[in-house]
Amino acid sequence: MNPPPTNQGLVGPGRPAHASVRAWLIGGFATVAIAGLLLIPGQWQAGRASYKSERLAVYAERAAAAPIALSQIEPSGDNLFRRVQVAGRYVEPTRLLLDNQMRGGQSGLLVFQALALGDRQIIVERGWIARDRESRAQLPAFTTPSEAVQLTGALTPPPASGLALGPSMQAFGRDWLVTRIGAAELAVLGPNDTGDMVLKIDPAQPGALAVERQPALGMAPDRHSAYAFQFRALAAGLAGVYLVLLFRRLSPRVQ
Hints:
Helix content: 25-40%
Radius of gyration: 30 Å
Low-confidence stretches: none
């Protein structure tokens, strides 16, 4: 009488053990790869959170300081959010208008203009003004003081440019409507004595529009941290599911 057939060497019906091992190995490599890909944006988000938190800490430290004369600033020093006071005249008529700036759900423009300081010049961020809700072809009208002014504010980088896609500048009379701010765009206003920084003036200064005191950092640090947690949690969850399934596969079956 022939002995009954056995499943030795088989994991399931007609499935060799080596095929199962190969499948688990492939699954393991795929899990590691996908988890690693999820950790990359998680690490980037965590880095952005740390970077912006550090910037806000510098701003908070220097915001309460008394402003100093621009002549006391060392151009090569650490001048981020340094508070300064200047006196001069706005340079007419060219202004730089940064488009697509949102405030309270309303689209608007961030206005930049040169300020002449005798034989020197700096670029001033005057603040935000709302766009016409009905027609984007019409730019909002606003005035510029013609007399000499004294301004107080903080030195800050212009808003981040983001992705440089397509032409960034469009002439509107003597003004320039721009979709990003960089060295090339600021250059249309002439030289800038503060290098790659602009003077973000305080509210209620001559020529000020709607000014937000805090630096424009885009997404807040806590949101970056939340996204970093989500990506890391997804990676950990994926790895956890694989390990649980593998543990169950390797554990002796209860008879």
